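Case study: Invasion associated locus B family protein.
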Amino acid sequence: MNKPVVTALLLSMIGLGVGPALAKAADENGMQAQQMPMPMKRNHLFEERAGTWKATCDEMEQSKVYCRMFHIEQFGEWQAKNFIQVGPAWTPDSVGFVVATYQGFKAGTTVTIGIDKQSRYKITAPKGNNLMISPDITAKILDEMEKGHKIVVTFNSHSGVRHLTLAELGPYQALLSKVKDQLAGNSKPVSVE
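Here is what the predicted structure looks like once written out:
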């Protein structure tokens, strides 16, 4: 009878002594494997405002330039603050168009985007606070924005209120040439050092 008790006592003592050491070693190895990734190195190249438009460009790793331009408009809604942000974003490989709102879109709302009296683009917004438009539609919108006078965006916000944004494109066009100059660096070959 004493032999099983002694064996159990020895096993529990070993478990109490070795168990925490093994757990600590496993935890340390797990923490090393799950370290936070290093943030991308960024060099701020350009930031400028014109009217209600703002443009920013940053040089990221491998000397690649990323830029975005946006119009921000604040509005009140049922005694709450809300805003809409509209504009393109460029990476070295593609371009997109973003429509974002602080309080989010009403699920399934149709966001319409149009330039001057051109036909409107209608996109169904997901539940959430931003809508990223596909590159093919983005290319059409940006082409119209370069030649147009005003951009019109309509949507239903999270609370269901219909909102209309109307922005002048003259300031956008003034900033666009500067952004294109910054993006031209992406087409240059990068030397490996």
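For the exam, be able to explain this: The chain has two domains: 1-35, 43-187.
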